[in-house]
Structure formats: C-alpha cells, structure tokens
C-alpha cells in the first residue's frame, strides 16, 4: 500500500549511499514498487541512472518481484521533440530511460501530463505500441482530468490496450480529484490510482509547525514548496490536524497518508523521502487506515476554506 517515488531527491547531486540505503530499506520492508520519470534529477535523467546502478548492485536478482515505473511528458531536452506527448518524444524517452536503468522493460510507462497541442490519438497510440513492443507491460497517465481520462480510455480500447493506472496529485489539502469526479471515473472503469505528493511537499508533517528549519526543502530549494506557501492559516490548519493525529497515535505525516488509503479507490500512495527515518515513519501509516465518522468530520471542518 506504500510505493516509493525516486524523485528529485535521487539525482546525481545527492548522496548515492543514502539513496542506496533508502532503496534497500524499502525493499527489505516489503515495498516493491519504485516510481521514476525521465526528468527526475537534477540533472535530468540522473534519478534513473542512480536507480539503475543500485538495481545492478543489489536488486537485479529480484527483477521479477519488482514493479518499476517511469514517465515522460515534461521537459527533458532542449530542441524539438523533448517535451509533452508526441509519438517521437515518448518512444525516444522510454528508450533512453531503459538504457539509464539497465532494464529491458518497465512495468508501467506513464504519460506524465496532458498535451494541449498533440492529438490524444497520437499520444495514446504511442503508449499502445510501446506495450505491443514489450517495452512496458502496462500504461498509465498522470494529472489527466476526468474528461481527458475518459477519452484516453476509449482510444486505448480501440488498440486493445487497457489503461491500468492514474497518478494524480492528491492530498488532504489538494482535493481536486474529488471535485473533478476523477475517482468515480477510475472506479467505473476499473482503473487504479496512485496519488503523489500526499504530504503536500512536506507541509502535512510536523516540520513547519514552529517555523522553517534551515535544513528544510523550503530553505534550500523553493521550486516545489516556497516560503510563501507556508502561510499562518495553513500552519494553523496543520496544527489542528496534528492534534487529531496524536489522538490516533500517529504522526501528522502518517495520518496524511492513511487519510488517502482509507478510500478503496486509492490503490497505493507514493511517498518521497530523503532519509530512511522518513520512510520508516511513512510505512507505519498502514497500521491504521480507518477513520471514524467524527474524525472525518473534524478533519473536513479544519480543511474547509
């Protein structure tokens, strides 16, 4: 029920031994799904390269027990065909990803985001051909809204390829999938969901309850969570949520992950960590994914705008 995202904290600029320790701990703890993308780094591609080295050193004998996914859809290289969802980009990107990871295939290949300029028939046709070529066992999409998702399903059906999974951004504080009806669409079509950013880039933890630590992501790199995102109002909400978590015998982070897993339409949750202690804490989330109606009502009241 917990999957490990090897995101921007697994690039070449980070500590290789730390990355190796995290991946080995994850596998030893029963996590078999490792999620990547072509442009995770920095630099782009380096997270896949790091994983490929660790795979060769530690996990190659267990390939048939692992579920490895990667994606393409965001900027990867300068010049033409290095972004979005053209057939040429998706085909070339996956070939490069497989080479970096030292793999013959991935278990899931995702289109990372909708492309407003490429016909969806071209993008989905490329995904279908990738499956038929044996370079991916399954295909998925990320950040597609419900209407776009339904069209993608229909197109893939014409190729006799099933869309297996959707990876939306989803957390207690970012609930667009509920407003969009995405979860209902997934359930109706028998498609799984793997939310990413369940901790809202660290906001849904106890990290920022007493200010911004000097060693935090916000202090070092404000690309994904900036100081402006940590408002007094949001911190007050997290403080209130943290009291509920304490009553449940959970950390704030554990409750945030459990809150997603309580919904049967959520297949697993992607967590991204920078050290083993964080992963250990996240894994404990699955020990209690049940919420009473009073807890849900209290949480919703806190999160209400």
Automatic annotation (TrEMBL):
Gene3D superfamilies: NADP-dependent oxidoreductase domain (3.20.20.100)
Tagged with keyword Oxidoreductase: yes
Entry keywords, A to Z: NADP, Oxidoreductase
GO molecular function: oxidoreductase activity
Domain called NADP-dependent oxidoreductase: residue spans: 2-303
Family: Belongs to the shaker potassium channel beta subunit family.
UniProt-recorded name of the protein: L-glyceraldehyde 3-phosphate reductase
Source organism of this protein record: Portibacter lacus
